[in-house]
Amino acid sequence: MPAVGGIGPGTGKEYPGSLTPFVTVTCIVAAMGGLIFGYDIGISGGVTTMTPFLQKFFRKVWEKKEADKSTNQYCQYDSQTLTMFTSSLYLAALLASLVASTVTRKLGRKLSMLLGGLLFFAGALINGFAKAVWMLIVGRLLLGFGVGFANQSVPLYLSEMAPYRYRGALNIGFQLSITVGILIANVLNYFFAKIKGGWGWRLSLGGAMVPALIITVGSLFLPDTPNSMIERGQTEEAREKLKRIRGIDDVDEEFRDLVVASDASKLVEHPWRNLLQRKYRPHLTMAILIPFFQQLTGINVIMFYAPVLFNTIGFGDDASLMSAVITGVVNVAATVVSIYGVDKWGRRFLFLEGGAQMLICQAVVAACIGAKFGVSGNPGDLPKWYAIVVVLFICIYVSGFAWSWGPLGWLVPSEIFPLEIRSAAQSINVSVNMLFTFAVAQVFLTMLCHLKFGLFLFFAFFVVLMSIFIYYFLPETKGIPIEEMNQVWKSHWYWSRFVEDLDYPNGGVEMGKGGQGSKNV
Ligand code: BGC
């Protein structure tokens, strides 16, 4: 990697202790928090193509779709009401993540996860038994609150628990469970859509209670992170917990660093206002741009609307749902690759490789769709090889996302914030993510109708932009202890101008040994 990548690993500190069974199990349970988010992403697209569901709740949409005999395939699904159903959840999640910031900081990461599970459970229950549209909406809002709490706390929890050498891999457990949630939802939709009585959608929506129960019960048994315990004054318990987590008695150095970070964090009265300080400019930039770019890869066009999209390009209903299952499998498999590689190859390599891969695929898919559908949206007969090529490139695109922006969009923000702003900054990360998930979900079908195949080029443009951003502005964070992260900014060609030594008189909050640490930088 070039010099713009900042410093590499091996910055001096090496806390002892490795991957214990205790921390592994704990992280697996916590990562289950991703299931509720994933299940919801995967379930809505399929449910909104189920005829009985549309007839019951969105009759006008259904009538319009039935009456529309136009040959312009690009516009057949364009309906604001229906997209509002899908995307309203993300607005609720946005609000909840802001509240969750305070809960996570003052009451602990564990309680936020528990609340997330409970709210999501309530939402799933109401949705499964929905008799009227208002019940659907109340349910969606509760689901959204649940997702907001879980996405705020789980990535932080994982990054704080993990021994730093394995932080990437353990944190990506969250993304893995998102992708598993999406896949399970796709498979269930495929089968539930076939239920004769037309009530399959109830099972799809109510089924969200299962992942909700997993994270609710799981979080009851989870310990809180030592970082959070110290932050809330439980210093001695935190030391014992750290010993247990790391599986050794000699945790002094790491413990001391956590205490120093926590002391600094206590001096901060207004974490939100604090974020605006000059020295946090790099963090704030990342908290906003990383989730923004993650959504502007266009991934949720595939995740939400794969069945609709495949339908549009000429697949039958069944084949469309099946293709969504195929992309779901690719999504899970490619996430496993990033678990393997993230702490070996680094974050920057994955970001840049994934970006290049997505770009090529978007260009090919745009060309394929453009060639057959033109601007009129009327393809005539589509040969089989054509459908295979499109699905293949969509799969390569999904895998590119799944080992880069997918997991790293959650991992990198959760590991770069110093403790004093961690919770607030993570909320910004979640809210920006949700805001643009909402925006993409809301305008995608309209954009497809107007931009036609050019839609894929629109997202391709952003992929170019984000790759340039990563190349020049994101320092490598692989193998750097979380409370020591500030040094990556200090030695970065651009960000160093924002972080002055004066800000860390003792060699850094993170250098718990009265300045010795600065020699390592
Ligand atoms: C993103 C979601 C996306 C999912 C796909 C997550 O990292 O935040 O918006 O649907 O990945 O696997």
TrEMBL record:
Record membrane topology: Multi-pass membrane protein
Q: Which residues form the Major facilitator superfamily (MFS) profile domain?
A: 26-478
Name the Pfam families on file: Sugar_tr (PF00083)
Picking any one GO molecular function of the record gives: symporter activity
Could you list this entry's UniProt keywords, alphabetically sorted.
Membrane, Sugar transport, Symport, Transmembrane, Transmembrane helix, Transport
Q: Does the keyword Chloroplast apply?
A: no
Main localization is: membrane
Which parts of the chain span the membrane according to its record? 19-39, 87-104, 111-130, 136-158, 170-193, 199-222, 284-308, 320-342, 349-373, 385-406, 427-447, 453-474
Mind telling me which PROSITE patterns this protein's record contains? MFS, SUGAR_TRANSPORT_1, SUGAR_TRANSPORT_2
Example GO CC term: the record gives:
membrane
Family label: Belongs to the major facilitator superfamily. Sugar transporter (TC 2.A.1.1) family.
Q: What is this protein called?
A: Sugar carrier protein C
Organism per entry: Herrania umbratica
